[in-house]
Amino acid sequence: MEFKDYYTTMGVARDASADDIKRSYRKLSRKFHPDVSKEKNAEARFKEIGEAYEVLKDPEKRAAYDQLGANWKAGQDFRPPPGWNAGAEHAGRGFEREFGGDAGDFAGRSDFFETLFRQGFASAGGPGGGQAGGSRASFNATGEDRHAKIQIDLEDSYSGATRTLKLRVPEMSEQGHVVPREHQITFTIPKGIRAGQHIRLAGQGAPGIGEGGAGDLYLDVEFNTHALYRVDKHDVYMDLPIAPWEAALGADVEAPTPTGRVEVTVPSGSAAGRKLRLKGRGLPGSTPGDFYFVLQVVVPAADTDSAKSFYEGMVKHFSSFTPRAKLGGQP
User: Fold this and answer.
1) Is pLDDT at 321 greater than 50 in this prediction?
2) Which CATH architecture has domain 229-317?
3) What would the pLDDT profile of 56-84 be if each residue is shown by its tens digit?
4) What CA–CA distance (Å, rounded) separates 283 from 287?
5) Where exactly are the structural domains of the chain?
6) In 73-232, where does DSSP find H-type helix?
């Protein structure tokens, strides 16, 4: 996927004001409109300009895009860094709600745009905004719901926790520039929460109009990358290194889990990739997940004369052993 430099597409600086961006869009859209332009690439350029303007005219999208930094070049191979948009608060409308959700609505937009603003900021399932309240003349309306993606540690899901963090909310300055405003929240992480679920903070969304109450804030949960563990829904996995003789002969080894160290019995004749299950030791819940040790056989290096001699002895001792016997075409 190629990185899109929307500022270059629009011919404006990264600190351009909203008025500068609007003027540039009007000029470029007239120049490349397919109905009037004689440029060979008019239709493609018109789409690129429209996509760039869609991002840069919107304070939330522009702030999210700017979060990626200025070190990427147009056309450069791009993958969003993990957690790039964590802590960015945005409106409680997902991409589908904003643009209608019809597949045709996405046809003119690039994979880059969809990855950032459809997938990267998709709602985790909370309500999509406030509702009008009272008569039209009273101008009462419930405030808009807001969303923010957060990253938590796996251990927080096992035990539950209370955390405090700062969220970034993009706002438009009097000069027409997008500026981030930080506000601090304190919230409770429920025990057993999974990636993709959300934490609802009632009344902490956008303020209401008139007598309308504030909307809600939904914290969409992701897990931080862990040095030892990985999560699949409610199950947790860990690669467990073992020696070749432990795999061949069997052994009792000690290993860590998120809830403490345990003794693991490695059955004799185990192969790399074998899974050893601890039932109910995955993420907590009414139906808890399981914890799996995935065996990884680690071979000692032949970096001394005695080690080399030992391996040479194994070659002679296991001369009839053919590890690739099951591969097709083997003699």
Assistant:
1) yes
2) Sandwich (2.60)
3) 988 878 887 887 766 777 777 877 766 66
4) 9
5) 229-317
6) 95-99, 111-114, 154-159
